[in-house]
Structure formats: structure tokens, C-alpha cells
Amino acid sequence: MALTIDKQIEELNELIRFDLDAIGAYNSAINDIKEMQIRDPLIQFRGDHERHVQNLSAIVIRLGGKPVDAPGFKGVVRKTMTKVAGLGGTELTLKAMRSNEEVLNKTYAHHLSLDFPEDVKEVIRQNYGDEQRHLAWVEQALQSRLWESGVGAHP
Fold first, then answer.
1. Does 118 reside within a domain?
2. Is residue 47, in this structure, part of any structural domain at all?
3. Tens digit of pLDDT for each residue in 37-57?
4. Within a domain: residue 154?
5. What is the per-residue pLDDT across 98-138, written as a single tens digit (0 to 9) for each?
């Protein structure tokens, strides 16, 4: 059964909130990580999340809704946990980012399964592809201990 307009707005705002949460977590990680071979991809990923917010917000407006413009409580917690992890160094920060990206991947996968119109689903599908790429890169960076190598591994 197709989602009502109000339900579409509600679900899209949930995705926007998760992306806003991610931007806050990426800001903390970028501030704490000094290795450019890790910082540069994180800056790119933050830009992806900013684009997600813009694209999803445009759809919410088109549907007659008001996009959320602040992270939720969970986002504040994620940002704080990422900041605390930063005190433990790059590895712990990347582990916190992996956890954040796992949540985003699950959230986007769930929203992709909802009965949105195809044009909205395509935006969600593209954003989900970004999330999968982010998670794969973070996992690879952790596995290869990229912060120790000094060698760049861009997404």
C-alpha cells in the first residue's frame, strides 16, 4: 500500500535527521583525525550527507512538508560518542564511524523497502549506495590499519 503524503514526509524527515546526525559525527571525526589519507575521504563522506539532506529536504518541500533542520537526540549521542572516541585516537574514531555507518545503512535499507513513489525511491537508493560505500571504506581502513601506513586509500 502506497504511503500517504504525510507518512512520506515523516519517513523522509527521519532520513534527514539521520543524515544531520551523521554530519555532526563526521565534523567531530574530521576535527580529531590528523592523517590526511583518512581525513580527506571523511570530508567527502560528510559532503555526501550534506547532499542527502538537500535532496531529501527538496522532496519534503515538494510534498508540502517542512524538512527537519536539526539532529535528533540520538544524533547528539552519536556525535558525543564520536568525540569521546577521538580522544582514544584514529582507530577508535573510525570504529565509532563504522557504528554510525552501520546504523545509517540499516536505516536506508529499511526506507528503501517502504512503498515510496519511484522517483523518491531512486533518491533513497542513490543515498543508500553512498552509505554502503562509506561503510565499506571505513571497514577497509580499519582492516588495513590505514592510519599506520601513511598510504592513501581514497574511496
1. yes
2. yes
3. 999 999 999 999 999 999 999
4. no
5. 999 999 999 999 999 999 999 999 999 999 999 999 999 99
For the entire predicted model, the pTM comes to: 0.86
**CB 68 within 8 Å of CB 16:** yes
Helix axes 118-144, 90-112, angle to 10 degrees: 160
Please work out, in degrees rounded to the nearest 5, the angle formed at the alpha carbon of residue 97 by the alpha carbons of 89 and 132. Answer: 145
CATH number, residue 139:
1.20.1260.10
- On the 0-12 / 13-18 / 19+ scale of CB atoms within 10 A, 66 is exposed
48, 134 contact by CB (below 8 A):
yes
Torsion, Cα of 152, 153, 154, 155 (10° steps) = -170
Neighbours of 87 (CB within 10 A): 9
